[in-house]
Write a structure and sequence with these properties.
Elements lengths: L4 E7 L4 E6 L5 E6 L4 E5 L5 E5 L9 E6 L5 E6 L4 E6 L5 E6 L4 E8 L5 H8 L3 H5 L24 H6 L5 E7 L4 E5 L3 E6 L5 E7 L5 E8 L7 E9 L1 H5 L1 H31 L6 H12 L6 H11 L4 H11 L1 H45 L1 H4 L6 H46 L6 H4 L3 H14 L4 H7 L29 H8 L1 H4 L13 H26 L1 E11 L14 E5 L4 E10 L2 E10 L9 E7 L1 H7 L8 E10 L2 E8 L8 E7 H4 L26 E4 L5 E4 L4 E7 L4 E6 L4 E6 L5 H16 L38
Parallel strand pairs: 21-25
Antiparallel strand pairs: 1-29, 2-3, 3-4, 4-5, 6-7, 7-8, 8-9, 10-11, 11-12, 12-13, 14-15, 15-16, 16-17, 18-19, 19-20, 20-21, 22-23, 23-24, 24-26, 27-28, 28-29
Helix pairs in contact: 5-9, 5-17, 6-8, 7-13, 8-9, 9-11, 11-13, 11-17
InterPro entries: APC4, Apc4-like_WD40_dom, APC4_C, APC4_long_dom, APC4_metazoa, WD40/YVTN_repeat-like_dom_sf, WD40_repeat_dom_sf
GO cellular component, one term: nuclear periphery
Pfam families: ANAPC4 (PF12896), ANAPC4_WD40 (PF12894), WD40_APC4_C-half (PF23405)
């Protein structure tokens, strides 16, 4: 019986350019040339969901990475320079952010270092959950509301934040671009000093070292040189508890900014264009009327004498109409009520939570012994707190304007409705006919304030009136408000104006009466981003280059290979704190796999080590008895776990029907002598491929941990040692086979199935199930016999 059990095979309609196994589930994420991101389950390689490309996110996927808990999938897009965090349960974007350059590689790691301080922080309940009310879910009836904030029964924000234990998304791009994002959301380091376009990244689990593989090209037609950099990130390691606390605060702040942004977007959607109808009708009336009487006087005459000019009658009865007036009144009341609720329940609660977290961050910044080295600046955070205060003031101003407008419009429309009914000689209900002197004064004040013709307003906005005052606050413009609030006679304003000391007091939030809510919000976002950017710059400047090794040059033929499938491959051994680099060097027409070892502690001089691996004849003879001593080239290699490397091999003899091989390479068979890989004497002035003959070589004889891949021109492999699975992709990038790598005894398998059945019965969400009819094996099918993926239906994650 061959090693490894095949559990699925598929011929895909589009070329696959990226594939990445989930660290916790039997799921694999794929990205194809069409820009589609797909999720498949292990069993029968059945599709769970697909996320098609769109204009908002982008169409050119350049990198994939899973969060260590397997609940979030991140992918980078080159055309829009955006990073999208997607929910594993359904194809929806939970969070996204922009970067300066297109991403070519991403790595998402979890910190495994333990300390008493960290343990107490991990176990302590977040005080903000005790002190702050839970943010209300945003209404689902708005098109732009993100799903993260509109689920009533689940705390989607906490799902996005994930576990308290620190994890970091490391992004690498062109021109030496490297950034580190805590919890995949907020930038905590901008790394400089690396040359070339990033081909691989690996941040050690103790945060002491960052390994980077880059492709350096002098000109567009020259050969690219693959270079290995090891960077010392010991500042992150030394201040791990402080970095974790700071990063947690940053992600809370980032999430709240998104919540406020979406709340404001909902408010903009609640405001309707129909509310501008009164302004446009009155402007048209001014342009068409022949009399010199002003619009204000026309309405005043109607109010005082109950008689309207023929022109005003035509405007009211033919253009506005009784039915239109009722509809306009209902729209204003409905719209203003919705906006008012959003301001009170969402905008204010989000702003207050933001104020709380920034105040806590300021307290951390004042503890200079702990946080000054990380770049936390108390004065910058104070500015951010002040900006949030100004935003809250502006939100309160909007509430006052809404309240005032609702009262004004209600009185005005009630009076005008009765007047129009009288014009049409319809019956007026007795309760509508009652109008006190106070009501008349109220309507007269409204007409005086809102119905003045303003030629300068026409030049600016194309209308003479601004009766509707709420919409101007929701415009995303830099211009001043058309009708700012009237502060004349306000005792508090007069008191501040006359007090030189209070005017500049840090205890008072600045007020911008001339600006819109959108403008103050953008100003707040800019100040907060600037304040939280400083730690990223300070931590980035602390990173220093420890090692730079030129590995080899790549030929022009290799340049057409998709980026994901280009070796080298980086791996971090969490137990022994060692970085491994896998790459191949062509030697005598054979691609030999080379293993480079470096300790994460850059101060250790014994960390250098390199070894070449070739595969012995036993493997050859097992496949082809007539061969004498054929050699095998390594096509692809990935670490399966800390002790094993999974490789795809091909016979190096040119002949028809030569088979490809999937094999497991135990490191114990390679490192038989602890010091054998340290016999090579390094010379930083020469590339490794120029001295490949001097590199110590280990010949490995594989016994039963290999399998022939019949009827498949296998080229690439993606593996997951935690779930004990692998996915092999053909050279045409469309044919995939999925294997279970560690086949257990039947008794163990039955026991595992019983456990899964129990978990499904109890409703555990982390295990994926599949209907029995979809479990049919496809083992042994040739590529021609395989069903095309376009014929299958998607299945959900839930049983």
């Amino acid at each position: 019986m061959p090693a490894f059990r095949q559990v699925g095979e598929k011929q895909l309609p589009q070329e696959v350019v990226f594939m990445c196994w989930s660290p916790k589930r039997d799921l694999i994420a794929l990205a194809n040339r069409a820009g589609e991101v797909l999720l498949h389950r292990l069993a029968n390689f059945q599709r769970v969901w697909s996320l098609p490309p769109n204009e908002n996110t982008g169409k050119e996927v350049t990198a994939l990475a899973w969060r260590p808990d397997g609940k979030i999938l991140a992918f980078g897009l080159a055309d829009t320079k955006r990073i999208i965090l997607c929910d594993v349960e359904k194809p929806e974007s939970l969070h996204s952010f922009s970067v300066d350059l297109s991403i070519t590689y991403m790595h998402w790691m979890e910190v495994t270092e333990e300390s008493s301080v960290l343990t107490s922080f991990y176990n302590a309940e977040d005080e903000s959950n005790l002190l702050l009310p839970k943010l209300p879910a945003l209404p689902k009836n708005y098109s732009t509301t993100a799903k993260i904030f509109s689920e009533e029964k689940s705390d989607e924000i906490m799902k996005l934040l994930g576990d308290v234990r620190l994890n970091a998304l490391v992004l690498g791009g062109s021109s030496g671009f490297i950034e580190i994002y805590a919890y995949g959301m907020f930038k905590i380091a901008t790394v400089n000093g690396v040359a070339g376009s990033c081909r691989g990244l690996c941040l050690s689990s103790d945060l002491k070292s960052l390994s980077v593989i880059t492709e350096i090209r002098d000109s567009s037609d020259s050969e690219a040189e693959i270079t290995y950099f090891q960077l010392d990130t010991s500042l992150l390691s030394s201040y791990l508890p402080e970095v974790t606390r700071m990063a947690r605060k940053f992600t809370h702040i980032s999430t709240l900014l998104q919540y406020i942004k979406l709340s404001l977007t909902c408010m903009c959607e609640a405001w309707e264009e129909i509310l501008m109808q009164m302004d446009s009708r009155l402007t048209k009336f001014v342009q068409e009327k022949n009399t010199t009487t002003s619009v204000q006087d026309e309405f005043m005459q109607l109010l005082l004498w109950g008689k309207a000019s023929l022109e005003l009658q035509a405007l009211l009865m033919n253009q506005l109409t009784v039915k239109g007036l009722k509809k306009l009144g209902q729209s204003i009341e409905s719209s203003y009520s919705s906006i008012q609720k959003l301001v009170i329940s969402h905008l204010q609660s989000g702003s207050e939570a933001l104020l709380y977290h920034l105040s806590e961050l300021k307290g951390m910044a004042l503890w200079k012994q702990k946080y000054e080295s990380l770049g936390l600046d108390a004065s910058g955070i104070e500015e951010a707190i002040t900006a949030v205060g100004s935003f809250i003031l502006k939100a309160n101003e909007l509430l006052q304007v809404i309240d005032s407008s609702m009262k004004n419009f209600k009185a005005f429309f009630r009076w005008l409705y009765v007047a129009m009914l009288r014009m049409s000689e319809d019956h007026v209900l007795p309760e509508l006919n009652k109008m006190t002197q106070k009501d008349i004064t109220f309507v007269a004040d409204f007409l005086t304030e809102h119905f003045n013709e303003a030629p300068e307003l026409y030049n600016r906005k194309g209308k003479y009136f601004n009766v509707e005052r709420v919409g101007q606050y929701l415009k995303d413009e830099d211009d001043d408000l058309v009708s700012p609030p009237n502060t004349e006679g306000n005792q508090w304003f007069n008191f501040l104006k006359n007090s030189t000391h209070l005017k500049e007091s840090p205890l008072l939030f600045p007020y911008y009466p001339e600006k819109s809510l959108h403008f103050v919000k953008r100003q707040m976002e800019g100040i907060i981003d600037q304040c939280l950017q400083k730690p990223a710059d300070v931590i980035g400047r602390s990173v220093r280059q420890a090692v730079c090794l030129s590995l080899y040059k790549i030929s022009q033929s290799e340049d057409s290979t998709p980026q994901l499938f280009k070796l080298p491959f980086l791996w971090n051994d969490k137990t022994s704190n060692i970085h491994y680099v896998l790459f191949t060097i062509l030697e005598n027409s054979i691609s030999k796999i080379h293993i480079l070892r470096r300790h994460t502690d850059t101060s250790r001089s014994v960390s250098n080590g390199i070894l070449a691996v070739e595969f012995g004849n036993i493997l050859n003879n097992s496949i082809n008895e007539s061969s004498d001593s054929r050699c095998y080239s390594c096509l692809d290699a990935h670490f399966y776990d800390d002790e094993t490397v999974t490789v795809v091999l091909k016979e190096n003899v040119e002949q028809e029907g030569k088979e490809r091989i999937l094999a497991q390479l135990p490191l114990s068979s390679v490192y038989t002598d602890e010091d054998q890989d340290r016999k090579f004497i390094w010379d930083s002035t020469e590339r490794l491929d120029e001295r490949s003959g001097e590199i110590p070589t280990c010949t490995v004889f594989l016994e039963n941990q290999w399998r022939v891949l019949e009827n498949m021109k296998a080229q690439y492999v993606s593996v997951n040692g935690i779930r004990k699975v692998s996915c092999v992709l053909s050279s045409n990038l469309r044919h995939v086979r999925v294997f279970e790598m560690d086949v257990e005894d039947d008794g163990e398998v039955e026991e595992e199935e019983e456990e899964e059945a129990t978990q499904i019965a109890t409703g555990e969400p982390d295990e994926l199930t599949q209907p029995a009819e979809n479990q049919d094996s496809m083992c042994g099918a040739s590529a021609e016999e395989l069903p095309d993926e376009t014929e299958e239906h998607e299945t959900g994650l839930d049983p």
